[in-house]
């Protein structure tokens, strides 16, 4: 059975954040809230945990995982950020966007797009998610909590616990955070390309 933590959405309890961070650092798979719904996550570079997430979501080896960061200061380690890209990121993060950027050599190959050498980067506008990242002092490897072919409502953490309690190690209950996915913007070329329209406004990228 997974550990179930109820964390205050406006004033996250530090001791519970430390417990969640410890689970990640021990190689666990967690469910946590973001500004675009609940997500699955694990430690960067942990292949065993990554494979568990693939099985939960029925994903193939080509699926593009996202690095979820606390702020822009972490990006240069994992992505190539030009002045143009930095200005865009500064204006639209934190927020419900996933940005596709050229990956640096620091990014494990299994996190990169297999042909394009790119990585998805996200800075969520969610108090619990940011507090967890701050506690970890490292990004999370993450993907949206959906199960293809299943019509399951993952609005509430208790519903997630009912279904995934034996498949993940820890679930953070941060209240209802919606179901609309992020807008995905590819910044790896000369101009932005909208790959998926979601919660984030696409108007600035047209």
Description:
This protein is an alpha/beta fold and 206 residues long. The protein has one domain (3-199): Alpha-Beta Complex (DHBP synthase), CATH 3.90.870. 27% of the residues lie in helices and 23% in strands. The chain contains six helices and ten strands. It has helices at 14-25, 47-57, 75-78, 83-92, 127-136, 157-164, and strands at 3-6, 30-34, 37-43, 66-68, 97-102, 118-122, 140-144, 170-173, 183-186, 193-196. It has a ten-stranded mixed beta sheet, with helices on both faces. A hairpin with a 6-residue loop joins β9 (183-186) and β10. α1 packs across α5. The chain is globular, with a radius of gyration of 16 Å. The model has no long low-confidence stretch (mean pLDDT 91).
Please sum up the structure shown:
The protein has 206 residues and is α/β, with parallel strands linked by helices. The protein has helices at 14-25, 47-57, 75-78, 83-92, 127-136, 157-164, and strands at residues 3-6, 30-34, 37-43, 66-68, 97-102, 118-122, 140-144, 170-173, 183-186, 193-196. The termini are far apart.
